[in-house]
Amino acid sequence: MIDFHNHVLPSVDDGSSSLEMSLDMLKKASEDNTNTIVNTVHFNHPKMQFINTDADNIRNQCLLLEKEARKNNIKINIIPHAEVYYDDKILEAKNNPITLLNNKYMLIEFSPLIEPIFYKENFYKLQL
């Protein structure tokens, strides 16, 4: 089974706050027959302004967490990806290697307080 939306990296965003918590999350996921987790770090979100969401950094953190998991006999794959916050830069986000899964899929997060403008037009442009 694949968990497509997860914040398992320790101390990166609003998910796990420690390595121990991450390992516990991975252990529980593995016990539930999840063999792959797509870690969807918040990208372009205002609350992530001072957090390093660079693709190389996220990839490295995923690899380090996988390594720690294997040391603890937890066999689970972690795929680096992003949950892209919808804003006026959404079309630029597709150029970042962490925002597109298999160069095709983008997970998009909307503000619960603001109705996005031009989202239909922008989604059409993203599909192109």
Describe the structure.
This protein has 128 residues and is α/β, with parallel strands linked by helices. The protein has a 4-stranded parallel beta sheet. The chain is built from 4 helices and 4 strands; from the N terminus they run E-H-E-H-E-H-E-H. The protein starts with a strand and ends with a helix. It is elongated, with a radius of gyration of 15 Å.
Brief account:
This protein has 128 residues and is of the alpha/beta class. The protein contains four helices and four strands.
Please name the defining characteristics of this protein.
single chain; 128 residues; alpha/beta; four-stranded parallel β-sheet; 4 helices
Task: Indicate the topology.
Layout: E1 2-6, H1 19-31, E2 36-43, H2 55-71, E3 77-85, H3 90-93, E4 107-109, H4 119-127
Parallel strand pairs: 1-2, 2-3, 3-4
Span from first to last CA? 30 Å
SSE-based structural type: alpha/beta
Helix content class: 25-40%
Spatial order of strands in the largest sheet: 1-2-3-4
Report the average pLDDT across residues.
91
Number of helices: 4
- Strands, total number: 4
